[in-house]
Amino acid sequence: MRLSMLAVVAGKSRAITALVVCAGLLFGGVIAARHAPSTQPGLSEERGLDPDGKGGEKRPTGLSFEKQTRVERYPHPSTLVTTLDAERVWSGYDDWEPAIAIHPTNANIVYQATTRYNGPKACNGCPFPVIVVRKSTDGGNTWGPDRFAPNVKKSQNDPEIEVATDGTLYMAYMDAYTPGVAFSKSSDGGVTWTTAIHFMPPGKKFTDKPILAISPNGQDVYIGFNSSDNYVATSHNYGASFTTSAKLNADTRYWFHTAGAVAPNGDVYFITSDFTQDYTGDGYISVMRSTNHGASWTITRVDTSKEMPDCPWSPGCTFGFFGTIAGLAIDPNGKVMIAYNANNAVRAPMQLYARSSTDGFTWSARQDLGAGAAYNHCNVAVAAGRVSGAFAVVWQDDRNGVNTAFNAWMRRTTNGGGTWDTASRLSDQTTGAPYKSAAGHKFPYGDYLEVASNANGDYLAIWGEGISYTGPGGTWYTRSH
Fold first, then answer.
1. Whole-model pTM?
2. For residues 158 and 156, what is the distance between their CA atoms, to the nearest angstrom?
3. Is 61 part of a structural domain of the chain?
4. CB burial of residue 362 (10 Å; 0-12, 13-18, 19+)
5. Checking CA distances to 387, which of 40, 189, 471, 480 falls within 20 to 30 Å?
6. Does residue 66 surpass a pLDDT of 50?
7. Has residue 244 been placed in a domain?
8. What is the DSSP letter of 469?
């Protein structure tokens, strides 16, 4: 979720208004309150179990989901050949802002999480949205039942999940804005969860948008979050208890963590974007690094974006949605790759850039990975492969129809960013949902998407597609081979 501090002080945030009062969306018989534009902490949402209580994939009418594959070949020096599964939708419910996690050594174990706005409730009196989690034991080909995340008495948003080497599933998420950011874990595949731990800095009234990073064995847990200001909660006992930092910024801007990772040597990284409280003026992209297990942090600004464009053409979307969302990943040799959307002129479309570093302080010149200056690029994520130099960047853009036809795309490198393959269109289904056409989907659904790699070298991506910012929409996913 993305929320302006001015909104909290004044009590008139469009995010809060959308969540509490308006944006009533009638879909599947449930009124679903929608959160504000992505540069305001997006209030994520979620759907519940299938009506029979067994989960599975409830699908929009008219779209076939037999598993298919497609091959995309690139006339490119990297000679990469990408085979992609046809995209599939998680369900026919109103889902957005999903997450994905894969077991570090077992490519068969995959988890997905999404925020759901309608469908069966978690309990009598439990509100929407809720977070739903499901597990695959065959690499994402088939899925077990949908299961509700913990503490469903609060509206839930923004799931972040990771899997430790012993198979424990870790989750950071939001229980509304208050008590806000929460942490829990499951040792039985998401069936049961530990009691949630919450983080509220002294004197603050809300917390927003967690980003979760863990060491491979799960002993070290780091959660970046904000209360307008920038904070990190740290655990070194497998998430049993946490220490929350003092605020890490010396300004009055609004900070968002958008990705994080633990390097092979134990150093911890988060990438952030920060804005004025009303999103006017420049936005800054920074990388945070700790070399002492979270005891202290160094913040390095890596780029500046001019004032973002507005999006009045999509119902429910207000100024702020196209603010920078950045991805970060670290390969087995400790090379850090970041990718982010930014622009070079006030209100110009946001472009897509990548940079790399071997020390977290000095960064390569930015590489343009996008479709060109005329197109909107948003919702960026990065994954590192299991061999050195391998990375994938996933994002959405509207090259197939400015403001009208978005798609999810992926580019890969096998040499640390020396060369990149041509963009692969991940969102290849063209019918079957009211927001889909041959050109793409009408709008990105939510502020965040994710991509992860498995032990076989595959990349699994997950994202949201919708009619508009307020939806309805769905969570979609695919896999490269």
1. 0.88
2. 7
3. no
4. exposed
5. 189
6. no
7. yes
8. T
